[in-house]
Amino acid sequence: MFARTARLTLRPGWPEDARALARAIAHPEVAFRLARLPWPYYETHARDWLTRAPGKADLSLLILAHDGEAPRLIGGVGVHPTETGHELGYWLTPGAWGRGYATEAGRAALGIARHAMGLRRLESGHFVDNPASGRVLAKLGFRPIGRVEQRYCLALDEHRPCALFELDMAEEETGPCRLAA
């Protein structure tokens, strides 16, 4: 699955992306804001992740910005099964923060979740010390459910408070999205 927005291309990761992926994600300020990322993060971690078999109803895409001469890997976005439904997750390399890329990629991922995966509800959350992620979720139409729960952060090897959100996609529209299979 691929998606294209005004400034971004979302596509599956390939083994040859391992070096660029490791460079983009291997920052403490990224790792400590994600639940399942090991730290330190090495190119071997990236290669292992890029060559794993995707799960059923699992979407994992790299985010490439095409605002320069050559596309550059700036993050990732995905929709993953949970015990209670599906969860939207995303990350950006620090140099890409504050430019609206997470919202733009999130809207494209919501279009895929709705139109290609047939999902009608999504969950998400953010560690409470990362309010910028909460603002992205709000822009995408997610609503806080009024609950904070402890979530394990692999990089820090500790449980941390995480604010929970949900999106009823039957109520919210994300706009048109160009998809290609």
Layout: helices, strands, pairs:
Elements: E1 2-4, E2 8-11, H1 18-25, H2 28-31, H3 43-51, E3 59-65, E4 72-81, E5 86-92, H4 101-115, E6 121-127, H5 131-139, E7 143-153, E8 158-168, E9 178-180
Antiparallel strand pairs: 1-2, 1-9, 2-3, 3-4, 4-5, 6-8, 7-8
Helix pairs in contact: 1-3
Per DSSP E runs of 2 or more residues, the count of β-strands stands at 9
Q: List segments where confidence is low: pLDDT < 50 over at least 5 consecutive residues.
A: none
The helix content is 10-25%
Mind describing the biggest β-sheet? Answer: 6 strands, antiparallel
What would the keywords be for this entry?
181 residues; alpha+beta; 35% strand; 3-stranded antiparallel sheet; globular
Report on this model:
This protein is an alpha+beta fold. Helices cover 25% and strands 35% of the residues. α1 packs across α3. The N and C termini lie close together (5 Å). The mean pLDDT is 91.
Quick overview of this protein structure:
This protein is α+β, with helices and mostly antiparallel strands. Helix content is 25%, strand content 35%. The strands form 2 sheets. A 6-stranded antiparallel beta sheet has the order 5-4-3-2-1-9, with helices on both faces. It has a 3-stranded antiparallel beta sheet with strand order 6-8-7, covered by helices on one side.
